Amino acid sequence: MKICVVGSGYVGLVTGGCFSEIGNHVVCADLAKEKIDNLNKGILPIYEPGLEEMVKRNAEKKRLTFSSNPKEAVKGVDVIFVAVGTPSRSDGGAHLGYVDSVAQMVAENITKEVVLVLKSTVPVKTNSRIRNIVKDAKFKVHVVSNPEFLKEGEAVADFMRPDRIVVGVVDGDQYAQDIMQRLYHPVSLKSEKIVLMNPESAELTKYVANTMLAMRISFMNEVSTLCEKVGADVHSVRHGVGSDARIGTRFLYAGPGYGGSCFPKDVTALVHTGRDNDVEIDLAVATDRVNQRQKGVLVRKLRKKLGDLRGKKICIWGIAFKPKTDDIRESPSLALIDAVLADGGIIAAHDPIAADNARNLYEGKSNISIVDDEYEAAKDADAVVLVTEWRPYQSPDFEKLKEIMKQHFI
What we know:
Elements: E1 2-6, H1 10-21, E2 25-29, H2 33-40, H3 51-60, E3 64-67, H4 70-73, E4 79-82, H5 97-109, E5 114-118, H6 126-134, E6 141-145, H7 155-160, E7 165-168, H8 174-184, E8 194-197, H9 199-230, H10 234-242, H11 263-276, H12 282-294, H13 297-306, E9 313-317, H14 332-342, E10 346-350, H15 355-361, E11 368-370, H16 374-378, E12 383-386, H17 398-404
Parallel strand pairs: 1-2, 1-4, 2-3, 4-5, 5-6, 7-8, 9-10, 9-12, 10-11
Helix pairs in contact: 1-3, 5-6, 9-11, 9-12, 11-12
């Protein structure tokens, strides 16, 4: 099948790479010419385990190509995926300008009947909105909602071995339904993974799923605060609770709050969607409020132990919002770094993958260095804060830390 993916960021590259891996001919299109030039040289804008090798392998086989001209890229294809950004507006809703622009471009440039798949995370009723934009196209455009459920760090595996494939199709659109089932058949051979529903249900499913996962994290973070007060061990509580098959163990780990490009945005978008429809989703509101408070827990611990942080050196281990990614968006580490710097402290930070992104973010800022060795960061430090649970940090050399640190606080 011939596929065009518009948007060559995280979702677009994973989608394009994986579809080409299972035999389709895919063109990833993006207006960012520098990004496309780099992709044609084998340089990816993101880090995702296994993706670089997959992209290079399929580019060499000519199954995967890249274009900075989306108007040409959509000509002659069977399916067009929309994988552009939907950043949060100031009121918490999703900005749909990029999605609208792609829909208009598709309507004006296609040369045959196509299925237009909304892979970007969008609010309820976006499918209807896009159908209205493309209704006067020269050729028939079938609009499908197909939200992504890719975990950063495990995206390739999630695509190739999905828990489910949510497909929202307008009632009676058998053409679109048949195309989507054919498209995803290679990754659902062992069991039927496609969950068909109407577009509104598909759009809402993405927001609800991410909010529910974020809710579990925020709840356990509140429980961890209670555990510290009463002398309980939150890890023991987690194990006891998670052993219940009705609950399970996933997303029950206490920490400094959730981050990344999905959970924060999707929680606030669900709240906004509810308010647009006169429904106050109190649990989602509380989930976000708890997370904002939790991102300050580490600096509060530092102040309690060290007092005034002015002139104190704080070593940060882990800048990415989670392991196995270079994504630092909304990372709890950034909240900690900013708070320490605001208190007059000095930061030395390390991350195995996300260091360059952090250097770019803090370029020109004083009292912060991003170093290439975790023990170099810890030298003469008043405290070491382990924020991201990368494997290399999980069994540190405590004797070495004791020798090189100024104060022995981890």
